[in-house]
Structures are given as C-alpha cells and as structure tokens.
Amino acid sequence: MKKGFKKICSLALAMVMTASTLAGCGGSKSETSGSSAGNSAASESSTAATGGTQAAATGGDGVLDIGYNQMVESLTPFRGNTLRNAPFMTQLYESLAVVNEIREMEPLVAKSWKTDDDGFTYNIEIWDRVSDSAGNKIDASDIVWFMQESMKRALKPVFAKVESVEQTGDYTLTVKMKSNIVGTFESLLRDTYAISKKAFEASPDEFGASLVSTSPYMITEYTANSKLSFEKRSDYWQDEANMPKCVRPSVKKLSYHCITESSQMAIALETGIVDMVISLDPSSVKQFADNKDYTVELADGSQGYQMFFSGADTSVVANNVKLRQAICYSIDENGLITGLLQGYGTPMYDVCPPMFNGFNQKWMEEDYYNYNVDKAKQLLADSGYNGEPISILTTSNTLSQRMAQMLQSYLMAIGIKVELKIVDMALFTSIRLDGTQYDIVLNTIGGTYLSDHWSIRYDPAAYKTGDATSRHDNTLAELLYKAWTPSGYTEENIDAVHKYIKDNAIAYGMFNPQTIVVIRKDAGLEKEVLEYQGYIAPASSTFTNY
C-alpha cells in the first residue's frame, strides 16, 4: 500500500466513485485496493478544470488559517488521549521525542536515551539549553515532576506502566518500566512534555486558559473549543536544523478554526476564511476535487474501525467461533466504505491498519473474511445459532450510528437477529470494557505499534474482568507475552498473534477511513512536510504567502 499523500483530480474522483459503486455490490478487498491504486496514479496529474466552486480571494493578514473539526477545551498539558493526534498538538507542547513521517522515534527535548536491561530501565538525557517562552530553564527535575504528576493523575494509560522515575543529574533521569512491551517507552517519550513546574504551579488555572511552554510557537489567541492561534518565537531554544522535520517551524503565524459542521467547513474554505482543511468530510470533497483552485490530498488512516466480540460467558458469541466467523463473512467491507465514506477509505487486513509498526504486507494477500454470504450462511448453520438477539454497542455520533445500522442489515440478511445499543460517549466509555454489556462493540483504536493495540485489547490480565471484552484467553496471552518483548517482536511471533486473532475471529478490522486534506492554491504551498499519520504538517511546510 502506498504511503503518504495522493493528489486527486476529477478523473481520480470518477475512478473512486465508480470503483466504490461496484464495491457496494460485494467482491473481494482487492477491488477497492485497485481503486486506491488509481488514485495513486492520478497523483502525478494536475488538478482538473474549474468546477462549480469559486474560490474567493484569501485574506492578506499573513496568517495560515486551518480548518479542523475539533479543538482542545483547555490548554493544560495534563490531559487524556483525546485529541492526542490533532495537528496543533506539536505547536502547543514539546515532548521528549516525536514520531516522524516514516513512523520512527526522533529525539526532541530528549538528547538521547538507552537501556541496558532489554527495555525495563531507561536512562534519558535532555538538552541543557531548553527554555520556555517565559524564560524558565527546563532541567531534569521538571521532566521527573511531569512524569510523576502524570502518574498520579492517571489520565493517559501509558503512565500507569511506569514503575518509577528518578533524577540522576541536572539533565539526566532514569525511568523504570513495569514491563518491556514494545512501543510502551516510545509512547512515554511522546506523551512526556517539557513544562516548567514553577510556571505551572504559578498558574491560577493550571494553564487552562494561558500556556507557557517550550514550543517554537507561542499562543496569541485562544478560545476554548473554537480557535487557537500561534506566532513563531524569536527566542526559541533549539537550533532548528537539529529538529525533526515534522516539527520544524516554518510558518510564522497560523491559526486553527474549529468547525464541526461539514457544510460550514466547505463554505469557510470557499470564502477564504480558512486556507486549508484537515479531515474534510467525504460528503464535501467532490466540489473541490475537480477545481483548479484547490489541491485535494488523501492520506491512509492511522486507526481504522473494528468490531470486537464479547468474551463474557453471558454472551452468545463468546464461545462460538463459527458464529463469530459467520458474522465476519457477512459484512461487505467495500459496501461500508461506499455507504459511509463515499469511497474514501480502504479495507483492513488485520485488526490494525497497515500503518502500524509490525504490520506484515503479506497479510494483504490473505482471505481476511472477504465478503461471502454463502460461506456466512453455512457457518451460521454449523454454529447452532438459534435466533438469539445479538447486541451491537456503539456511540451516538452519526458515522457510528450509520455503521451499526448497515451492520444490522448485513447480519439480518444471513438470518441473525440484531439489537442496536446506541449510547452517548459518556455511557459508552463507562461500559465498553464490560463484555456483559454487549455481544459486539464497535470502536476505533489508535497506536504506533501492533503491541500498543494488543496490550490494551487482548491481555486477560489487563482489567479486573479479563481483557477489554471480558475474555480470558490464556492461549492468546502466551502468544502476546512471547511477541511483544524487544527480543520477541519478530515476524514469526507477530504473525502467530495475527493468525490466532483472525482464525478465532476474536476481533475484526472492517475499514480504514482516509484523511482528506484540501488546500487552496492561493495559499502557495511550495514544500510539503508530512507528519507520522501521513498528512501535511501545516506549521512545518513551506507556503509562499506565509
């Protein structure tokens, strides 16, 4: 699968829509992959002739305006994983390290790190010249404080995997992990921010409305859940040549606008309120794809949507592998991509998308429950299913509701009775790890390594009730424990975990939405820099007008 952006024109759009229409009638995963390849080929083409959307002249204020559909509710650096991957996060805070465009860790505030015991203990050295926008100098005591405070607040799961952290010098510290799961320490590096303890404790609201950080940008305007503006600092501590390209500051001024309604986002782009949009809704793409005034780019998604089967003994699916397999075969993944994403997505070949570290490209050639109604009906007959209702739990957002309704139709078509359990996010969060509350739960799980996903989903010791669906599968646990250590993270061991989860239909990866980015041509994009999710890093790219 080609990584990164694919520019599309009207020809590419027609190919997508045609392939998507065919995909809606079923067929194998390779058909949609072919459609994606068509987009890739079209990436070398120029944008087609002007369509019906006329671009109004953009403003001349020197600010790169970016539309995005979410915004932080507070500037505090102590936060959960929500919005962890938002494009403005690297301008808000600086972490010890970042994941670059080829999904490798690069030092940022940290100068180096090493382990001498196979990933249980790490010695970290930070730069000796780190300072924030208020002139506070950052040393190892600030990093130790941030980690310890994060452990106390327990807002991000990764900090629960830290046993201890200790300062060993002015700019050195030692971190001891509870386990040596591949990717855990890397997540810790990424989620540990360089924040002055003195400045934070002096803040009346824990940096809720006003932030002091070591970032190369300082905040010039902030409205909770609405707008976030930055200006490049003249007193930044680091030599920019030593920075990872994905966080190297290029744009002098930029502003993020939170616009949640898709039609309003399109209007903001047309009228020049924003110069570009990250994560445009698929329903709005067509009006820009065939217009010479805009560039439309697609990036393969970094999470995907999965269904997880309950492992609780009270569930009808928990101990019936043929029933779970029948459900997987009954789902037309290409139909989901067409119906939910208007073709802007790809099928999955594992529970995790291809972007994850450890994914094996050969899995894309396997039969990963390719849509097959006859096979689904035969497995259902062999399963002994007696018409018991199967419940699907999901959230109440529009995409999730429509997904659940389509899945209900697919399952009913082979003779399975389905009950939808659509709840708000608060209730979903409180019951999603309790397998007694559903038979199937729909979710989207992020991460950088396959082991990130494994450790939070399938370890029977992860939660009080077992794994994330109340399952106690010790055979799978043994495969996991063998595979996720630094020495055990081999192709053979990884493949064994993939095969076990797939063959036993413990979970099923359905589809992976593409991230759609639209950029106005008059923004003057000259050099594009990508961040690790495969789409443009606005602050680090070069624009003639900004």
From TrEMBL:
* This protein's record includes keyword Signal: yes
UniProt region (Disordered), positions on chain: 27-55
Signal peptide, first to last residue: 1-23
Regions of biased composition (Low complexity) lie at 28-55
- Domain called Solute-binding protein family: residue spans: 104-456
Query: What Pfam families has UniProt attached to this entry?
Result: SBP_bac_5
Task: Give the keywords, sorted.
Answer: Signal
CDD domains on file: PBP2_NikA_DppA_OppA_like
Entry protein name: ABC transporter substrate-binding protein
Q: Can you name the source organism?
A: Lacrimispora defluvii
